[in-house]
Write a structure and sequence with these properties.
Elements (H helix, E strand, L loop, with lengths): L2 E2 L13 E6 L7 H4 L2 H8 L3 E6 L16 E2 L9 E2 L1 H12 L9 E12 L2 H10 L2 E5 L10 H4 L3 E4 L9 H12 L28 E4 L2 E4 L2 H4 L3 H8 L7
Parallel strand pairs: 2-3, 2-7, 6-7, 6-8
Antiparallel strand pairs: 1-3, 4-5, 9-10
Helix pairs in contact: 4-6
């Protein structure tokens, strides 16, 4: 069964809007992030839910009596490949839940060659689906036949290869969760939905370091919001 991370939920009247189902050999690697800050609060307030499914629990012992989830790749090559069956059974476990609506469920296969994940795609996922299954690979990957058994969407979080799918899955959870109304204190506070700048400032107005003064741009102190927006859009050059 999946590990329920909603044990500290406050009993509010919010409707659960988005469920993440993570298939991973190392579910404990998510703890330090999802148990803290905004994501933890979103889980506690029932805006999102995150469950984990470890393929090891669905592995079957081979003829030698050894239970494992990986094996040597056909055709040769270095490393090991995660077997299809334990992953298939993990997905079946998720899809067998009474709360699952197949047409509202997305299965994501993390792949360097997949569609580029960005805020636009995250927004689309958050609006279209109630359940998102993310399959995290390891080693040399997962037996490709799982994509013949289930319809999946290949997604890449960037032009690089990570050691496993756990970090990309965390990125997806964070970015998609931001698009769920209620996760952030104010929905309009999302940087992607307002005029913002890569440079921000706070008190003190004058920072002194090694006898040198560093000042906040005057336009931000002016109270002229039209000019401030221009500055944030990069339409005002500072002297």
């Amino acid at each position: 069964m999946g590990v329920n991370t909603t044990k500290k939920i406050n009993k509010k009247d919010n409707n659960l809007t988005l469920n993440f189902h993570i298939i991973s050999l190392f579910p404990e690697s998510f703890d330090s992030y999802i148990d803290k800050s905004i994501i933890a609060r979103a889980i506690e307030n029932k805006f999102i839910k995150v469950d984990f499914y470890n393929p090891k629990k669905f592995a079957v012992a081979n003829k030698a009596g050894i239970t494992k989830v990986d094996d040597r790749p056909y055709g040769g090559g270095p490393g090991m490949v995660i077997q299809a069956e334990p992953v298939i059974k993990s997905i079946e476990k998720i899809l067998s839940k009474k709360t699952i609506v197949r047409t509202k469920t997305l299965i994501v296969f993390l792949s360097p060659s997949g569609a580029q994940f960005d805020t636009e795609l995250a927004t689309k996922f958050s609006k279209k689906y109630t359940d998102i299954i993310i399959v995290c690979g390891r080693y040399e990957g997962i037996d490709a036949r799982i994509k013949k058994v289930f319809k999946m969407v290949d997604v890449s979080v960037g032009p690089w290869v990570t050691t496993g799918g756990e970090l990309p899955a965390l990125i997806m959870i964070d970015v998609i969760a931001r698009q769920v109304e209620g996760v952030l204190g104010k929905f309009e506070s999302r940087e992607e939905s307002r005029v913002s700048s890569s440079e921000v400032y706070t008190r003190p107005e004058v920072l002194i370091y090694k006898n040198k003064k560093y000042k906040v741009p005057k336009v931000l102190l002016s109270g002229n919001h039209k000019e401030i927006d221009k500055y944030r859009q990069g339409n005002i050059k500072l002297e």
